[in-house]
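Retro notes - structure team

What went well: the batch runner handled both jobs without manual restarts.
What didn't: labels got mixed up in the shared folder, which is why I'm recording both outputs here explicitly, each with its sequence directly above its tokens.

Job 1
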Amino acid sequence: MDIVLILQMILAAVIAAVMYTIIGAAPGADETATIAPVTLVLVLSGVKPVIILAFFISAIVASKLIDAVPVSIAGIPAGVMSTPMVEHAMVLKKNGLTDTSIRKIASGAIIGTIVSIPVSLFLARALVPFSAVIKQYGDPVFFIGAILLALMSKNKWISLAAILPFALLIQGLRYMYWGIGVVPKGTNVFTSFFLAITIGPVILTLFELLNKDKRDNMKRFDKKEINLKKTEEIKKFPNPFKILTKKEVGYSALASLIGSVTFILSPVGLTTFLGELFSSRTKDPVEKASLAVSTMEALAQATYFSGTLIPLVALGIPLSPMSIGPANPLFNAPPVFTLQHNMHHILTNSDFVWATIIGAAVAATFTYFITVKYSRQICAFVFKRIPHEALLGLFFSLVLLLAFMDAGWINIAGVLLLGIVAGTLYRLGVNYGVLFMILYSAPWIIKTIAGQ
């Protein structure tokens, strides 16, 4: 690997760290809705895969580090993965320990990064001998994955009931496009469908605003007031091993190890379960909350790394909630990446190691320092100057553009239809993991039912 390529990777990682340090501080800035579209644009633009991977790794590290800010200061989750921490962060806030909450969460993310990178790369190499067998049964594995995720979700029955109808809708749109000649027969319209599911709740809300009765019954609010307390200033570069107690470091490392091994399970469910389990024996509310937020964040960061690196290095097919969500463009972004030709097939082992280390090191160094030292200023800037609606509008317009590029004008209507249905199912309790697994297994499901 030459020095020019390394410098390009460092530059990409720096851009991602700065970019997602700002975006990640915005409430509701879910990783699937913010990182996946940008990564997809980079892939379709022809950027070198190893540079894209460095960008992506930096982006997920920065996003997880900075989500300590809105959670701790305002009690607002930056994304789905930070939701389990809100209750414990508010306990620390009530005790005047907002700055402690931010530092504990950010330090937990650093522990998760340190533990999960070598563990994930080791597990990926261990799975390589079995990759051919696993990929041979890839389609039914996706279907089984949809069933398992549905059974593990809170709303089991609606999730199970949605599998066949949603698969029928996806394949029905594809067959219609083939039938009217919008795209050549056999072309897998995927990218725009993936993004339609990602922002389905947004599309549904926009359509609801067109309903006068619904619009009139919506609650009206004045400008939201968020009080930001002054925090203790840190002069030196923060040390996560000094910020966390020995007990918190130990539990965070253990949670990271478990999260790396169980990469195929739901990250949110695993984070909630282990975080509550590890902190349940601690009686003091402040100590319990500190242990919970640091452990949860370490585990969340570990599931992001393992859920991306293990399927990408070992298999080349997305078999984890992370890989079918934010990391999906690394696996499947037609026409550049397909399940038969993606980063797994292009990059070498050293490429994966270098891109991961550079991306993680740049984001960890930059965003960790910024998060701990300037958390209050960042949060105030984002809350005042960057409306959440502006971010959603940007990504919504990007989805419409990619829908047109995938299959012309008619696909914009198809994406809106798919988004409405996905948004409705999401509100009913069907999580993203189930919906994405259905998207992958839809061709196999319909062919199997039709007896082809």
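Job 2
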Amino acid sequence: MGSTALGSGAPARVGLAPKNGVFGSNLKQFSGFMLKTPPNVGLSSVRVRASVSSPPQKHYSPKTSGVRSGEEVRIAVLGASGYTGAEIVRLLANHPQFRIKVMTADRKAGQQFASVFPHLITQDLPNLVAVNDADFSNIDAVFCCLPHGTTQEIIKGLPQQLKIVDLSADFRLRDIEEYAEWYGHSHMAPELQQEAVYGLTEVLRDEIRNAWLVANPGCYPTSIQFPLVPLIKAKLIKVRNIIIDAKSGVSGAGRGAKEANLYTEIAEGIHAYGIKGHRHVPEIEQGLSDAAESKVTISFTPNLICMKRGMQSTMFVKMAPGVAVNDLYQHLKSTYEGEEFVKLLHGSSVPHTRYVVGSNYCFMNVFEDRIPGRAIIISVIDNLVKGASGQAVQNLNLMMGLPESTGLQYQPLFP
């Protein structure tokens, strides 16, 4: 039962260690960072956070097919000082079985988490540590909330029994040449890329269930693919001339200090950016091309809008001959009927970002365009929840054999 330390019974992913990685000692170097793994491994009986639920008394065993009732799943959150890391902590406060044991934040190492995010002071959490000082010997699963480009080498050095959900863009694109083109550097873990499963939960549920590494989708791709993928698969819309206008709250740009995100730069306005080269474009096109079984190219313009969180994607599509707007509506209704988190609104109700704030929901609806034969689809999510941390928790629930909604039944905050 329980995880074992790297170098003391559980090797890293076979064949994936960097050339200068050293196995067999309790301090391992991996291409510029160190993984600290003590030789004596035991099960921790100390709870590290508060919860509204009764604490599980047993630990999850990776030898079993899934988490059993009452078993504790020990979680590491890498990059916990960012917005997505904080959302993971907030969501897991009500999770009955996930327990946070390790939290990393290199620039905040040694600090209490509540000093970084005072709104989570009620949670009993471990202090933040640098990633090279993190001990993964008693960890079952990892949420990786690090920036793109830093995740690849870290993940390939982790013990092989871990379940990992990566919230960066590092493993979303199957084509590593395309990754290099859009992200400006070569992929450092091509072997892992072949094993990663794309984590659009409601669309790729079966693949995610059996994965050990899930690439959590980006926020824009999440809001866009939910309506478009089923419509393209059913050949109800044309794949040419898809136009997408999307708007995101400022938290989508991350927590780092940037001049472009200063209040005086973004207040009382809306700002288009990445007009010809936003990095979510290849991710969106990859998913739509899979649905169409042919190459799909879109026209995509993202906009930064002066609000903290929320995302709206407006899609302009041409319907197939003989198809009416009601056909699109009915197909989306049947596709997502019974889904807890993806909802089609009734009648002419317009989705608004304020309807989903703080929740894991995606709300959408379909409208007739003034131009004959065209339709307008509007989809809204909370970019930090369904567009990031909420979908990550949903994916790990699925990977652990738990109900997908576990710990995610937060209703939207309104007004």
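One thing worth noting from job 2: The radius of gyration is 21 Å.
We'll revisit the folder naming next retro.
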